[in-house]
Amino acid sequence: MPAIGFKFTTMELFWLAAIPGLASGILRLIHSNFIPVLGTRPVVSIATIIKIIPMIWLGFAIQDLNTSWETFMIIGFLCGMGGGDFSSFMPSTSIFFPKRLQGLALGIQAGLGNFGVSIVQFVAPWIIGFVAIGSIAGGPQVFTKGEPVKGAIEVVKNKETKLVTDVIVKKPELQGVIEVVKDESGKLKNVVFHENDAFKAIKQEVTKDANGVITEVTPTKGVKLDVVRNPAGEITDVTFKNVAKKAMWLQNAAFIWVPFLVVAFILSVLFLRSIQLPSRGFKGQFEILSSRNRARTHTWNCTMTYITSFGSFSGFAAAFPIMIKTLYGGFEGAPDPLAYAFLGPLIGGAVRVITGGIFDKIGGSKGMYWTTLGQIGGVLFLVMSGALTPSGVEQFPLFLYGMLWIFLMSGTNNAATFRQYPIVFAYSPAKGAQMLGWTGAWAAFGPFVFTSLIGMSIEKTGNAELFFMGVAIFYAYTWLINYWYYTRKGAERFDYGNSGGTWWDKLTDGEKERMRAIDLGKA
Questions:
Q1: Cα torsion for 436, 439, 445, 447, to the nearest 10°?
Q2: Final residue in a domain of this structure, among 213, 248, 283
Q3: What is the DSSP string of 382-410?
Q4: b/e for 127-140, b at 16 or more Cβ within 10 A?
Q5: Rg, C-alpha atoms of the chain
Q6: Are residues 286 and 186 in the same domain?
Q7: Same domain as 98, residue 178
Q8: CB neighbour list of residue 186: distance below 8 Å, 6 or more residues apart
Q9: Do both 192 and 298 map to the same domain?
Q10: Of 83, 147, 183, 214, which residue is most buried, by most CB within 10 angstroms?
Q11: 470 and 504, same domain (yes or no)
Q12: Which residues contact 246 (CB under 8 A, 6 or more apart)?
């Protein structure tokens, strides 16, 4: 958005990336209660067609540089409706399959569903590069990409005030191009660019219609000297960049999904089965928070461990591209965030499809045990390698591979939870299904929480280390929960898979009936 002219701060951009996650979490809490009461078909069908509203609104809003940040926040919140659906289809799907196939079935569904994140991040950079939909969708925007010229200038700053005190021109050919202006006392007043035959200032060549709307953009290249000042007029930064301008149709990234939503709505109405789970109404949906059969304790445990798995996956998926831009975008040869953004969600989604059946065999708790340790290792690697506090673009591979490892581990961890949670609530299939919706709702706040906290960490300290150290501590806490309640020998509700058995398998028929009676309030 800044590349086409929107003047949003780094923190405002992090908030725009975070707000769909806030909406997703809120709406998942609602969706987790809808399915058992209203059934699958009406909930999913309506939730599908209503997404057309933010897509059309976003498509037009992105074309107007006067659109406020607050308006984009509202649109972003509405876009979060897509995440709310997860807590509709997952609970109903779990009822179709026996416990021995829960991991496989839900892993495939969630994995394929989350390929959507990768598809959007992969398709968007391509679809915005040409007209695609036609002039009816609006004209192009001027996309500006700048890259600092390595070794051109050296910027000297006061360590305490962070103000620029001097600019040293390093390249001989720039001596007459960049002029450093100081007053009589030697205080820096300005830095001025003088164009010559070798260094041409970037030009913007556009064609507009009678209403002033851009209809054509001629690609151009040049250089630009950026002098950043604070409200008092003091210089805080200076950069000399190679700049390229070209046409971009950002509205395509929104409009392209409208026909797919219409088709999905029609298919939902025609083919979805409106399965209604055994339910005691909306009030009964909160019985997972009761003390019966220690439901409240295990609801807390499942929620915390699911935040570690899916919360991390979705949170880092939202923050990944903007982290690349913020941490590495200021270096010469900076990586393009859009070229890498889809990789994390692709890996995390694919591994869920692949590993779901494995955890049916060995047990979800064992999978969560090892993958949570893997996530802790990935986070500590990023902190200790310096990839979060880079001094150059050569450190980017460390950051990339560290993040992809976390996506791999969190996606695998997520597949293990799909097996684990129905087993924890084996005495009530309805509660096991609802737990998938409930935990998914809270973990869906991941994009909001992760992105906003990463943004705050960068704003306060200049890097994301503080956030990553905090998340490592949280991962350790949830690892202990999983180990104590579900993995160790003699754990309260262990799950060692179809081969090793579960806590429910070890109970007598009388013990099982008593738990069911307690659940229904009859004992």
A1: -60
A2: 248
A3: HHHHTTTS-SSGGGHHHHHHHHHHHHHHH
A4: bbeeeebeeebbbb
A5: 27
A6: no
A7: no
A8: none
A9: no
A10: 83
A11: yes
A12: 142, 143, 217, 219
The pair of structure tokens assigned to 253 is 């990234």
pLDDT of residue 90: 66
Q: Residue 291 has which token pair?
A: 């003390």
Same domain, 309 and 364: yes
Tokens 């926040």, located at residue: 73
Q: How far is residue 148 CA from its own chain's centroid? A: 28
Q: Give the count of beta carbons closer than 10 Å to the beta carbon of residue 47.
A: 20
3-class DSSP state for residue 180? Answer: strand
pTM for the model stands at 0.72
Task: Using alpha carbons only, give the angle 327, 451, 456 rounded to the nearest 5 degrees.
Answer: 70
pLDDT at residue 278 tops 60: no
HSE-CB of 294 using CA atoms within 13 angstroms? 9
* Domain end position, chosen among 202, 227, 248: 248
Pair of tokens at residue 315: 């949170």
**Using alpha carbons only, what angle is made at residue 491 by residues 488 and 495, rounded to the nearest 5 degrees?**
85
Q: How many domains does the chain have?
A: 2
What is the spatial distance between Cα 133 and Cα 251, in angstroms, rounded to a whole number? 10
**φ, ψ of residue 296 in degrees (nearest 5):** -60, -45
Range of the domain at 118: 2-131+256-519
Q: Comparing C-alpha atoms, which of 323, 347, 325, 345 is closest to residue 335?
A: 325
- 210 Cβ contact list (under 8 Å, min separation 6): none
Same domain, 230 and 374: no
How far apart (Å, rounded) are the C-alpha atoms in residues 249 and 287? 49
Q: Is the pLDDT of residue 134 over 90?
A: no
Same structural domain, 443 and 339: yes
Using DSSP bridges, classify how beta strands 153-157 and 141-148 pair: parallel, antiparallel or unpaired.
unpaired
Q: What are phi and psi of 59, to 5 degrees?
A: -60, -35
Confidence band for 99, pLDDT divided at 50, 70 and 90: low
Q: Go through the chain and tell me how many residues it has.
A: 523
Distance CA 309, CA 302 (A): 10
pLDDT at position 290? 81
CATH of the domain at 40: 1.20.1250.20
Axis-axis angle for helices 10-38, 86-96 (nearest 10): 40
